[in-house]
Amino acid sequence: MKNNKHSFSSQVKEEISNNLNISDARKIALLSAYVRCNGYFNILNKDSLIILQTENAKVAKFIYQLLKSFFTSNVHFYYVKNKKLNKTTSYKMVIENDVDTILKKLGISFLENKISKDVVFDDDTIAGYLSGLFLACGSINSPNVSKYHLELAINDEDYAKKIIKLFLRYKTTTFEPKLIQRRNQYVIYIKKSDKIGEFLVLIGAVNSCMEFENVRIDRDFINSANRLSNLDVANMVKTTNVAKKQIEWIKIIDKNLGIDNIVNDKIRLLCRYRLDYESSSLSDLAKMMSMTLKKPVSKSNIAHLFKKIEEMSLKYER
After folding, report:
1. If residue 53 lies in a helix (H) or strand (E), which one and from where to where?
2. Measured at the alpha carbon of residue 34, what is the angle toward residues 33 and 40, in degrees to the nearest 5?
3. Please, which contacts does 206-214 make with residues 24 or more away whose CB atoms are closer than 8 Å?
4. For residue 3, what pLDDT is reported?
5. Which of 68, 22, 75 minimizes the C-alpha distance to 49?
6. Domains and CATH numbers, the chain
7. Dihedral of the CA atoms 210, 167, 37, 179 (nearest 10)?
8. Hey, CA dihedral for 197, 199, 201, 207, is it positive or negative?
9. Do 63 and 34 meet the contact criterion of CB atoms below 8 Å apart?
10. Angle in degrees, 0-180, between the axes of helices 24-38 and 57-70, rounded to the nearest 10
11. Contact by Cβ (8 Å): 16, 131
12. Residue 210 to residues 194, 205, 217, 250, 289, Cα–Cα distance (Å)
């Protein structure tokens, strides 16, 4: 999903980036995930470089601030405007010295896919690591769309599987992330709306979670109302179709025997009521019969009587 400043993904990322009131351990875990997933290692004139890039200005500023707060390395910050495509601006950070020190502090090896337990060791640092991953490679559908979907797009299958295990280590709640391959990427995704809401809280996007849940509640209310309306219509159609068959049975009996000549008082009365009240349900007919006969007549009694009426009509059809 492309990040533009109006997308819900960008909103979530910017909310994370505005939250500096988190523990240092969580910040380090966030940086570890972001650099591991977003950065790439390069060597220029025998000097090691780490290059980070994003199209979100607030995310770039946030990561830059974190790097400067923990490390004394030279971090060059600049932007490039793409004139050919959609004129988006890419923000780049280049770390030029003490690269090995930074990678060691963040527990990162670009040659291995492990997630350092020195960096990620409890629920708070797991939350920080997942926050960094979302900033680097995450996206989420707008809550206004019909299908809820949150994903992390990873370039390495083994690393993606380790992230799945990281979800399972989180003790406060239970997530059920799935993993699929999409072209050259391995996508970790969550589709259950309640779990997406929990993930947003986990990564510190509380306001975005509230918006997501409010839209979801409104949508679910409308869907519930629509389902109930559809059910009412379906029941009405079913009642009408059944009543038509019952009326056909009664007319056959009336033609061959005459309704007034039916011996059974209940069947005779029910035939009259069905002809007079074509759209009434079995429950309605049961109430009318109970009032007339001055004794209880249940819906199941009415269904049984109509079965008798059907059997009578079949005798005259032969």
Report:
1. strand 47-54
2. 110
3. 206/15, 207/15, 208/8, 208/11, 208/12, 208/15, 211/143, 212/8, 212/143
4. 41
5. 75
6. 8-219 (3.10.28.10), 229-317 (no CATH)
7. -100
8. negative
9. yes
10. 120
11. yes
12. 12, 9, 10, 59, 53
Q: How many CA atoms lie within 13 A of 105 on its CB side?
A: 17
> What's the pLDDT score for residue 39?
82
Which residues neighbour 245 within 8 Å (Cβ) at sequence distance 6 or greater?
Answer: none
CA distance 148 to 209: 13
70 CB-side CA count, 13 A: 23
Measured in degrees and rounded to the nearest 5, phi and psi for residue 17 equal: -70, -20
Mean pLDDT, consecutive 10-residue segments, the chain of 318 residues? 64 93 94 91 74 92 93 84 74 87 89 89 95 96 86 94 93 88 94 90 91 84 75 79 91 91 92 91 92 92 93 83
Quickly list H helices, the chain: 8-17, 24-38, 57-70, 99-106, 123-137, 157-169, 193-202, 206-256, 265-276, 282-293, 299-317
Neighbours of 145 (CB within 10 A): 11
* Residue 211: Cβ within 10 Å count: 18
Which residue type, as a one-letter code, is found at position 76? H
pTM: 0.71
